[in-house]
Amino acid sequence: MVTVMELYQLLPRTNCKKCGESTCMAFAVAMLGRKKNVAECTPLLEANFKKQKEKLESLLLPVAGAEETGMIVHPELCTGCGNCVVACPVDVANDPHGAGMGCAPTNDKVIFKVVDGKVLASNIKECRRFGKNKVLCYACIDPCPTGAIEFV
Amino acid sequence: MDMDFGKFLKSPEYDIKIITYRDIFHAEALESDRFGEEYKKLSAAISMSKTDMQKMGIKSGDRVKISNNFASIVVQTNESKRDEPGGLAFMVNSPWSNSLVSGETRGKGIPEFKNIDAKISLSKEEITTLDKLMKAFIKNPI
Amino acid sequence: MVTCTGCALLCDDIEVIVENNRIKEIKNACRRGAARMKGCSNRLVPCVDQKPTDIESSIQKAAQIIRNSKAPMLFGLDNSTCEAQVKGIHFAKKINGILDDTSSFCQGILIERVLAQKFRTCSLDDIRNKADVLVYWGSDAQDSQPRHLSRFSYFPRGELRQRGYEEDRMAIAIDVRESNTAKICKGHFYRIPPKGDREFILALIDALYGKVPAYDTKKMLELAGILKKAEFGAIFVGIGLTYSIKDDFDVLTALAQKLPNFNIMPMVGHYNMRGFNETMFKETGFVNKVKFNGKAVHDIKYSIMESLNEKTADAIVVVGSDPVSSLPGPVLSRLASIPVICIDPCVTMTSKIATVTIPCAVSGLESAGTAVRMDGKVIGLSKIIESEYLTDEEIMERLVEAV
Ligand code: SF4
Ligand code: SF4
Ligand code: SF4
After folding, report:
1. How do strand C72-76 and strand C47-48 relate by DSSP bridges?
2. From A81, A87, A105, residue closest to C30, measured CB to CB
3. ipTM of the complex, rounded to two decimals
4. Which residue of B84, B98, B107 is in closest CB contact with C327?
5. Is A79 on the interface with B (CB under 8 A)?
6. Which residue in chain A is spatially nearest to C141 when comparing CA positions?
7. The CATH number, out of the four listed (3.40.50.720, 3.90.230.10, 3.30.420.40, 3.40.50.740), of the domain defined by the range C42-103+271-364+391-402
């Protein structure tokens, strides 16, 4: 997962304010939060920053596809093994006799399902990482063999 | 990158031990089209640790010749994402890896599919195709 | 609910949406299974001498080749239903042929011992409900039986394992390669050198006896400690372990004896390879490598490898298998030097060198039947879409009549 520091180090770090933020660090935070995009940093458009700009764009690419909650599923990496389906505590709570036991989900309240060999996430607002009593849950990230799920 | 043919002509050979394994993306490619590009790309490939590759002067994406008494094939090198012990190289089990396996089973019926000794060197030749693999062993494929 | 034939887990909780006799959507199957259900892009057509013909002429030509052969061989049937396997065995009997399958150079040596009850074994449902210590040995389930960990072994909450993998189960990987399965086993991955399994087992047995193991002492004692405490353990034996100890398989028996709470489970790839071994065992007392001659004679020389090396067979019928792709290159010239009859739903490397090709239906998709899961449970396969193709069972019957 990309960090603010990684983004910051690729910026010109002159605090020129051309992007509208007061510092480059603030701009990095805004980019990570998807409030600003790379193109708004005009000095980066100059030729000598070409490499940094490309790197930034590639780092931020997944963010562009993120759901509201920040979860990104990379279907091209997913093997459809179903580990996340069975391990997610929300799926266990909402479907104890289906997904919780390793079987196919029996209702639509689960977060993860596997369709055409790849995982499909829905009901993401139920994820424990969000809402009032949020916790830093890793139960879908850790069991994934290929790093197909990340949070940004 | 410009090709430096002189470098290839002198490219040194190294001994390697190849371990074969199975991969789900490769299995998927096999199910859908065993004569397709994807299956070839995932089969005709070898991965090694960064350290081994540096030692041999091989970079990710370089083509290498793998040869032993049974066959000589050209595949693409990939740097392993894992931290591998030295001296081992990895190939997905496929007709490419099988071409390097001895037919001798010491009367046991089980060949050494997973434990192949071979030599590796940089190559400028094309990646070996399935067609070429078959022709190497079968004189007149019908 | 239908069954996936992508591997010997035979997941029977798959949902499919069929539209105009085509599969439109597949739910719950892994990537491998979904690819299997979508089918291959090039279907086989009937050919004689690589020239297209009709299925009737193909079958007649195949029968003629077999009639003219002194030592015909039937090979494959691992991707066929149990019903087709029974018919295949009858066909081999009728032609006094040699019969072998992929298991002779795969997990046959292990399944033979499981069927002969040399090991304690259990069902995958037992594992889901009771198992607390899981050892994936020379097995990358994540890539070969992708839903193994999620459906049965590690992640599910079972009867006695209500807290699931977080607290109630421990997964251990022993392998030459840090596989995807090993990655999930994180702190409990034991890396061994190639062919190091035997030494590892011997050291582990020492550690279990309380002796100081000669090999990797600290980790070995730690592992022995974990295994001893297990209430219900399972060792999932992959092809990596089987190949590595094939010359001295008894070391595994010795280890199993020292671990009374453990079960041995063969990890099988082809969806009905265990079915072939069981059907053969019932009909002949052997799991593979047989020649029929009034009775069944079992000998290593009837394995596919030795049949080719020693030129024991002079014609071969291949059913649902692609030996040209899976055998060592150096024996292929021998295979190509005898007439090959290839029965398969798809164009394969073997069909490309075959004298006769006979297309068949995809079992579990275009034809129904039963198959045996890797733990021995019989699972039903359903017919999901209509097709014109003969099943391999019907083709076996037709060949019996035609010879
Ligand atoms: S972070 Fe936890 S609760 Fe959220 S989807 Fe992943 S496993 Fe489920
Ligand atoms: S655990 Fe990872 S690979 Fe498996 S289904 Fe979930 S996202 Fe896909
Ligand atoms: S684990 Fe095997 S049987 Fe289950 S869906 Fe995947 S390929 Fe099919």
Report:
1. unpaired
2. A81
3. 0.94
4. B98
5. yes
6. A81
7. 3.40.50.740
Using N-to-C axis directions, what is the helix angle for C31-38 and B24-32, rounded to 10°?
0
pLDDT digits (tens, 9 = 90+) for B1-58: 445 554 555 679 999 999 999 999 999 999 989 999 999 999 999 999 999 999 999 9
Predicted local distance difference test score (pLDDT) of residue C245? 96
Any idea where the domains of chain C sit in the sequence? 42-103+271-364+391-402, 108-266
Number of domains in chain A: 2
Domain B13-137 in CATH 2.40.40.20: yes
In this prediction, residue B142 has a pLDDT band, given cuts at 50, 70 and 90, of very low
Q: Are B97 and B116 in contact (CB under 8 A)?
A: yes
CB contact B28 to A (< 8 Å): yes
Whether the CB of B20 is below 8 Å from some CB of chain C: the reply is no
> Which ligand is located closest to the Cα atom of residue A151?
1
Cβ–Cβ < 8 Å for A99, A86: yes
- Chain B adjacent subunits, 3+ CB pairs under 8 A: A, C
- A80 with A104, same domain: the answer is yes
In chain C, positions 199-238, which contact chain B (CB-CB < 8 Å)?
Answer: none
**A85 and A52 inside one domain:** no
CATH of the domain at A97: 3.30.70
Of the candidates C272, C280, C283, C332, the residue with the CA atom closest to the CA atom of residue C304: C332
Residue showing tokens 């005709």: B44
Cα–Cα dist A71/A36, whole Å:
19
Q: Distance between CA atoms of C208 and C341, rounded to whole angstroms?
A: 52
For A111, the domain range is 71-151
Q: Any chain A CB within 8 A of the CB of C30?
A: yes
- Cβ of A129 closer than 6 Å to ligand 1, yes or no, is yes
Q: Which residues of A touch B25 (CB under 8 A)?
A: 79
Domain covering C108-266: architecture:
3-Layer(aba) Sandwich (3.40)
Kindly identify the ligand whose nearest atom is closest to the C-alpha of A85.
2
With beta carbons less than 8 A apart as the criterion, state whether A1 and A152 touch: yes
Mutate to test the pocket of ligand 2, among A73, A120, A149 (most ligand atoms within 8 A of CB): A149
Sequence length of chain C is 403
